[in-house]
Amino acid sequence: MKYDFKHKFLKKILIPIVAISVLCSTAALVFANDDAQVVVAKAAFAIPDITPEQQASALPNVIVIGTGGTLAGKASNNDPTNFQSYAAGTYPIADLVNQLPRKDKIADVSTFQFGNKGSTGYSMADLYDLSLAVDQALEQYDGAVVTTGTDTMEEIAYFLDLTVRSEKPVIVTGSMRPWDVIGTDAPANLYNAIKLAGSGKTKWFGTVIMLNDTIQAAREVTKANAHRTDTFDTPMLGALGYIDQANIRIYRAPARAIKAGASDWSTPFDLNTIPKSKLPIVDIAFSYQEAGGGAIKGFVADGAKGIVTSGTGAGGISSKMSAERSKAISENNVLFVTTTRTGSGTMYPGGNSGASANIIAGDNLNAQHARILLLLSIAFSNDTLTASDKTQIKSWFATFGTQDVSIPEPVVGLTGLDAAKSIEPEATESATPSIDPNPSEVVTESPSPSIDPDQSKEESETPVPSAGQVNP
Fold this sequence. Notes:
The chain is α/β, with parallel strands linked by helices. It has helices spanning 2-31, 52-56, 93-99, 124-138, 153-163, 186-199, 294-301, 319-332, 367-379, 387-401, 416-422, 441-445, 457-461, and strands spanning 61-68, 74-75, 86-87, 108-117, 143-147, 170-173, 207-211, 214-217, 222-223, 232-233, 241-244, 247-250, 282-286, 306-311, 335-340, 359-361. Residues 1-32 form the signal peptide.
């Protein structure tokens, strides 16, 4: 008995010690090399398997991943005329898909309920899981449809566009009217999204949005009206294509499609390599007449690692905002992205020295898209944001963020089809003049690379000692 007592006592002591030793050894292996890529255990989702009948069918296999939104909304008081009064995310996606007629014409369809609420109810950590769920589903299925609310649909779609690893079609859809009201757009949008996913027409495009028979790139699209069913629009560039019953026409492709099949088609943002805890706080500060610096100051105090400024004209911000931006850079190493509140227009890159090293040109991304790209860029960088990290992030904005098209010359001596086959096109940043990433209205008309990014128009031209002075 005495021996047994000692044996049990030793087990109680030794087992925890051995366990701690194993954990410490594992941690040492993982963190021994700062440059080593950490592989994070993937979450497993209850994605339904393709059935034998579906495998034997000639139809494409499409999965619809439901997250709720207006498309799954139920009209208040069971009144089919309540277009604006409804409970978003009420009906299960399986029920909605089952109600669609003639699916036998377009695809064999399965469903997965990821969530059931409005789009604004999802956190960035939720979108991390959604992206992994989409990729898991596309290991089996030919295409995926993700249903969401329209309020932040463009942000959800762009997050998927930047993070989903599969080249297969990913179609995001929703509706402006709930499922059970008269004149609802929900069933038609869902049906056409399934049709598009099954067609394979957007393979290698990344994620696209499809509502109102219109196909648009996730990077470029924005919600332009609070109520109309044709709310989504692509400023400057226009739609990718349209769906008219059995006809799907694609008239242009996103720049990344040029790299179809190439190793650099995928973005660097592989969520399998980082935990959710790496996703940082990134906010948006809006500029207006005599805008104060309180928003930037508050965001930094709240722990923001990055801030997107939505500026006037060609990205200008007020002198008070500029002062707080300089302080945030010097004291907290916060990264900033310059965008415009005008709705369209390109922000060009500036210098890389001093405060400019922390200021990134947002190209023609709107503020909400730029925030998604900045958030992911910081997440895939060192926590300290070194000079090398900042250079890398600017490069990501200039390539994956800009999506400029450049077609190399074919190999000399080849003609016709052989010459076309020899071309290895790539989407790269074109040469642009080095101008201030936060210019004033005067700079818009006559760019000057010598202007300090923290100077206002008044300060750079004729200093005016006014306490109320603001940038344009």
